[in-house]
Write a structure and sequence with these properties.
TIM Barrel; 8-stranded parallel β-barrel; Glucose Oxidase, domain 1; D-amino Acid Aminotransferase, Chain A, domain 1
Amino acid sequence: MTKYVYNFDEGNASMRALLGGKGANLAEMTSMGLPVPSGFTISTEACMEYLATEKQLSDDMMQQIERNLEELQVRTGKSFSDDANLLLVSVRSGAAQSMPGMMDTILNLGLNDVNVERFAKLTNNPAFAYDCYRRLLQMFGNVVYEISGSYFERHLAKYKETHNIKTDQDLQVDDLKQVIEKYKEIYQQVAGKVFPQDPKQQLLEAIEAVFSSWNNERAFVYRNLNDIPHHGGTAVNVQEMVFGNSGNQSGTGVAFTRNPATGENILFGEYLLNAQGEDVVAGIRTPQTIASLEAAMPDVYGEFIRVANLLENHYGDMQDIEFTIENGKLFLLQTRNGKRTAKAAFQIAVDLVKEGKISKEDAVLKIDTKSIDQLLHPSFQVEALKEAELITEVGLPASPGAATGRIYFDAAAAARAVEAGEKVILVRQETSPEDITGMSISEAIVTSRGGMTSHAAVVARGMGVCCVVGCEQLSIDEHQKLMTYPGGELTEGTLISVDGTNGAIYLGEIETVPSEAEEAFQTIMQWSREISDLKIRMNAETVADIETGLSFEAAGIGLVRTEHMFFKEERLREMRRFIITNRQTEQDRALSQILNYQIDDFVEIFSLTQDKPVVVRLLDPPLHEFLPHQHNEQEMTKVAEQLGISSNYLAQRVMDLTEVNPMLGHRGVRLAVTYPKLYLMQAEAIIRAAAQVNATGATVKPEIMIPLVGMTEELSLLKTQIEEHLKSLLEELDTQVAYTIGTMIELPRACLIADQLVDHADFFSFGTNDLTQMTFGFSRDDAAKFINQYIGDGLMPIDPFQTLDVEGVGSLVQTATNLARQKQADFKLGVCGELGGDPKSIEFFHQIGLDYVSCSPYRIPIAQIAAAQSAIKYATIKEKLEV
């Protein structure tokens, strides 16, 4: 028979998955001899079984609940209908991972019309007894019968106003009796229910309600936001009541063993005299600071300090403690690792190491990688945000941060506004490489289309610019310079604020709070680098990006996207000349000019990176992306004049190069097969630049990467051509450069023939954006239109463009890794797609033994800590397996 119910003295802190965090910690505190009211826990397994069986408590569950209730009555010497020793209990939820405020609690259970009179006599305090009954009716009605709390609150407020009563504490017995009768009427009027008078029926209905709360909307949303699995369930804790509302020698409160906002090592919290727990949360009365308890109840305060220190030392972390004082005696109702800001998290972790309470590894594990963005990007001031007018909150949070500026609908207009001294926000249906100038000078970027790996998203993250994409509630008319949203229309120059961390946009200016990367942050980062097996590189090609990455101590560059270098006007003109002309002399002249530009680009990069490895991806996009839009007559005319050709000829060339499905078309390695001089020019520029920088005393390590290879023959042909060209070049320069040539693995076929490709490559780098796109058959720029529904309907657990699809894409990556390493055990393998900055994906990449991941500069700290956490986790697993 499955055991579903555990007394507090049967569990311990290691049983979180079964007893939930609250139940496991109540059991642990009980075993430590701390003052915990007696009780028992009904397991998470019981919850999931209940939810899976049409919400029915099984006979086994019912019998075990009854038996543990009888044992609780024996331990406490109380029972539900005892005139002399009346038992009342609380019923509280408790999932394995803390979900504060997301599920439900019922207090004072066991009171009824008869027991309230017994309780009044036992306590010699009728007002207290009836106040407890009033509270039970409201909580039970709300949680069990889903009666909105507003019904009860409105009646209570109206009653107090009518009778000129200021606070709940001023209610007299007769007042409370009248309120209680009205509450019972609300049950019948709103829910067609009668409040159950049988305490055991109350208990069973409360248990079922708490089980059901696992699937309420707010719990579901919270789990999605915090990556908590939906299959865990909640435990139910049934615990003897202690009363903080029994007089002025009683109270209730919440305290943290350290300041959860700053991390300062000082007791932080508040309490209320003559109150129950929900009074603190509701904010009806102003609580007092925990420090003031020392004057009010010095003995209780001294005991609380002792217990708080004991619990923090025991758990090795800052604790969030719920407590009640009943007639001068302290009771503990819960302890858990406290929620904290990112700033506090780093400070607490470092301080705990300095105090000798935890190891460096434990400190790194305590950092929530999701919170790191708070330190690196500004955020909106919380109070100001509450007053702001919302435009939309359904955008995708592509790049975190908070920014305010005036909206402009094209890069040129944005540039003019910046020159005039304005802060701008670039608003587009979607961005393209030609928007890069406007993007780089904008405070934020907003698009109505695209997903988390769209051009706007990837580039913005790389630049550390706040960005929200896929705002389908917005209609953006770039020609009319008009943005329409559900609440109205915005014209060019309108001031808006963008929250890239949460995907929301607001009207007007909102005050921001600057980022706070302090000494504790740097310390944790240093420890993470020492611990990690995976190296963390950056995706970067601009000076600003590279300097940012180097400030985070990136191990090198894992992806230089050379196509981003071609959109300055003079470079774009020569690139267009190369593409459009059919004369070899013209092509060679254009390539010669582009070569000089590229040498300058790579000298700039290598001068910054010095001895660090740099992966340079040769041109990847289809050629038509460099050409003007066919239907933009003004642009077509301008380009034709620049190149000295007719508009008709240009139009024909644009039409010839336009593709129905360019992502599967003439791009990447296919360009080099058709235009071999293009890749040879780029390779030459890389080596000439490396030689120049080496002459200054550096040892540049360029890694030349050929994209979109799907066949061995493609890679063999191009590698041979490049090596032969560079051999002649190095002889001409009379120097040596230690370069390597590898390929970007972004096609499923490449993964399956990796054992063949490895014979012609010095390294592989997995391009997870395209590999995910090709594996699923999803357009990464359009998938946002349906992926959220897929996730909501349970068809997909995650967005595969944000977190690796382990079963499909991950299996291909692992297959390629195994095939390559079987041929060459030390073959270099890395990741350069956006998943290189995702903690869950990094755990998988660590597990299969990759050498490095590469991500946008501002994601380096996230990736670094995630890599360290993976190393610690799997070292621990390995040690356990070896034992």
